[in-house]
Amino acid sequence: MGGAEEEPRSLSCIQRVSYVVVNSLESFFYWYGRTVASHPSRFIAFCTLLTGLSCLGFLNFEIENRSERLWIPQDSDYVKTLDWQRENFPQDQRIEMIMYSAENVLTADYIREMYRIHEELTSIEITNSKGQHFTQNDLCVRVPALGGKQRESMLQLKAMLFPERGLDMEVDWSLMVDKNIYYQFYKIMPTACLEMSILEMWGYNATLFAGLTDEDVVNAINTVTMSATYSYPMNFTNFLGGVVRNASGHVVAARTALAQVVMQVARSRLDSGDAQNHAGLAEEVDPELLAWEGEYIKTMQNIVVASGLEVFFQSQRSFGEISSNTIFGDVFFLACGNAILFIYVQLMLGKFNMVETRPVLSLLGMLTTYMAVTMAFGLCSAMGLLYGPVHNILPLLMIGLGVDDMFVIVQCWQNLDHQEQQLELRQRMGQALRHAGVAITVTSMTDCAAFLIGSTTVLPALRSFCIYAAVGVLTLYAFQATFFVAWFTYDQQRLEDKRNGLFWCYKHKDWTPNKCSQVDLATLFFDKVYSKVLLLRPTKVLVFLVTAVLLGVSIMAMMNLEQSFNPILFIPHSSYLFQFLSNLMYFYPQAGERGTVYFGALNYSQELHKIGELGQAMERSEGVASVTSWYDLMADYTWKDTGEDIRGKELNATFFSEILSSFLFSPAGTRFQTYFHFAGNLTLAQPAPSVTACKFDYQHETLEGRDEQIAAMDRVKDLVREGHFSDVAAATAFKYCSWETNKVIMEELVRNLCLAMGAVFIMTLLLLANLVASCFVLISVTFTLINVMALMTWFGLTIDIITCINLVLSIGLCVDYSAHIALHFMQVKGSRDERAKCALREMGPPVINGAFSTFLSFVLLANSDSHVFLSFFQIFFGVFIYGVFHGLVFLPVLLSVLGPAPYLKPHHLPGTDQDEGHQGSLKSWLRPKPLRQREGR
After folding, report:
1. Burial status of residue 70 (CB atoms within 10 A of its CB: 0-12, 13-18, 19 or more)
2. What DSSP state is assigned to residue 76?
3. Which portions of the chain are predicted below pLDDT 50?
4. pLDDT value for 53
5. Helix extents (H) in 535-652
6. Is this model's pTM higher than 0.70 or not?
7. Taking the chain, what is the end-to-end CA distance rounded to the nearest angstrom?
8. Cβ within 8 Å of residue 422, ≥6 positions away
């Protein structure tokens, strides 16, 4: 262990090819560094021009916040169904929800507070661009209302006609009186906005609310079963959460009460081109309703309620709006992180005296990163790639990688030997870039390869993100080797002319650096302290032992990593929407996911029975709690109206049109009018036009866990598919978006990680020119990834689209730490211990500086309210800790014990013609080398 080594007698095929690549890169970067240093102003202008031109791409920049366009495969059933729905069955209703919470909401005072808030909402008025005024009454869904005096009159009429039925209102007047009389009454029937809440028990009657007592409220919730406004049967306990019952089963208290206001999308204004999409779910909304929802949100955010009562709410526009705002959230944390990073870069790049300090170069180095990010974003926007919530972490990633490359270039400049330091500036810059160029090429190309592999995923957000990242890495690589090197040249000219580090115009006379500023503490630490302790035999044993224990514990922890994805995670936890949804899931766990089955232009008269059979099959299906189908109600109505039993039968087309029209204008069927789309207008007392599309609703049971959810979703889809309908028939639900993602995310994660690791191995094998060294780098990256995934379980993270992206990014970052050490180990000669010590001395400082600077850029995100940023911090905190451990602790020890022999290199002298082009005959590189005597083995 640690003895000297011999060079191999012959080169393998991969070594010959790799040596050509590595030495060609060295030759190229020497030439490129000289060229940039010879004409820095031209390259600065060129990079600036390119960045400016790329900004034109931002004209095509568009933020995507629709879940179906971000998180699930575009060939999935969910996306296909939404696309069909958008074209054939667009949503015309939007639901605004309010939740009242207290120790017991069933008190008279709290009921009056609910009524007061109801009145405030009805008074909201908005004005459109044409000066027209709109209130809730103008924009809501209106339904027939038989409340108040109308209800009393109907009760009296019913009592006279059917005295044996008492005051029971369950009488269908379309069946009890002549159809013509009923239709005349229907035309003049009053309507009201559709609202569903416990306030319906009193019909929004201010006088009744004023005289309410606590006892009245409790009595009403246990006895009233009919809406006082609409005369529909209602189970008002369904609106309550956290219900408390007495021994007899009667409700005595409740923690929450839910209210829903149903609003109407004005299709006429959408058709005129005024459609806007703020829901993020393929839903369009007219400008007037969107403006009303905005005022509704403002009103609810500023509402003042009685002591002890809390109000939570959501609007249909909330999810898309908040998700969009979150994309640019935490700007303060990013700005502070960048300020801290600038200070750190300034301290590490320069020295502590007035001339050798490099504040301007530090700023320009970070500017290089920003320019590269701008150019990458501009190019990707020009290509039409989507920009989603997760893309906001890209600048952090690019800053980390850019600063890492900057430290490597500066460190290689400082590592120039005495002979190289005597060359003219352009040759010195070429020599520095010759050493640094291969290092940053290895890391940049492996990062780019990992991201390009990730871009082959079927998940749109991950695909777009990886393409953004790959383009960003390439532009960053080019700009650091060009724009930064050009400014580095100017800064070095300034330094050698003894000009002030901050004010370049001021020249210091008779200046000599103080001794303290000439001490490189980082290099000194790695050379004199760290490497000596690390490479002791007992320390090596301890490192292997710690690594093995850490790996074993991490593998066990990783086995407990769960898979779960929910778009709600993109909502900040402090937002009103997250608070509402959290309380909704807590207090209403019985409310499983609601879904809809859509049908296209079927032959409805012939296939009507199939719809009924599907509804019955779904009700029997495991995971489905209930089905709200109009079929059974229509069949019952038709039997009572015509005496014809239509269940399970194919019907005459004319007869179907007649009974469908009668049913949809009956008290039982009126609410289902919006469940149908017709080829013409549905007209009272006329047969229904041809049906072009229809739907019915269903509700899942409360499903726990990924497997249970996916199984229930697939069963519903299979039942619809087995119906063998002649046109489109598809089931969908809001949560199917996340369930579809959960179905593929694990497969995509394993696939992307394996392919990315394979790409990293191939790139490192090609560029490191050694199979053993490449395997050691791969081992370090693999161990780091396992440790990070274990850390995810301790942080409570799950496998979702965000963590999937971060894990792919982790490969790109942690390979940097190991590749720099392995490459430098291969470039120097001596015993294994000596080479490991040299690699730590010369590459340890830039690696630790790059890692720590990356950590500083995102450390403030620990306080973030965004799941995207918080999970990014948690995972990359693990990458920082474990990546540095494996790159600067485990890998050097492993190389010192089992490291391969160094590269074979031709002899050349710095500053000579051979070195200027580094143009030794490539033929000699491809031939086996004779054994040459080196330091004893």
Report:
1. buried
2. S
3. 1-9, 166-169, 272-275, 277-282, 906-937
4. 94
5. 537-558, 576-587, 604-620, 630-642
6. yes
7. 10
8. 911
